[in-house]
Write the structure tokens for this entry.
Amino acid sequence: QVQLVESGGGLVQAGGSLRLSCAASGRTFSSSAMGWFRQAPGEEREFVAAISCSGLSTVDADSVKGRFTISRDNAKNTVYLQMNSLMPEVTAVYYCAAQASGAGSSYPHRYGYWGQGTPVTVSS
């Protein structure tokens, strides 16, 4: 059973930056696509970014394009989400997810493993 543990969330002032980390257990990390999603209260879980096992990344949300960067370090079994120029509208719980194969889907149901989430709050 793959375990994913997010960290790095918290409270940040508008315009600030955060770097989220997701540590994965097991030896399947290097062959898995990884994704980041976020969910605000009462809303659907929203795709933020994904990265393939080869390091090809995608950021799908127009509102964060150019501001969020996903990366991975296979030696550390860790995927990161660097978030810069943060605005209050991105406040949500951020979830890390693992996909056994593929380049990283924007659909949550494609991912078989999920972390517990780490909250990100951006104050004005």
Remarks:
- The two ends are 40 Å apart (CA to CA).
- The chain is about 0% helix and 50% strand.
- The mean pLDDT is 91.
- The longest strand covers residues 92-99.
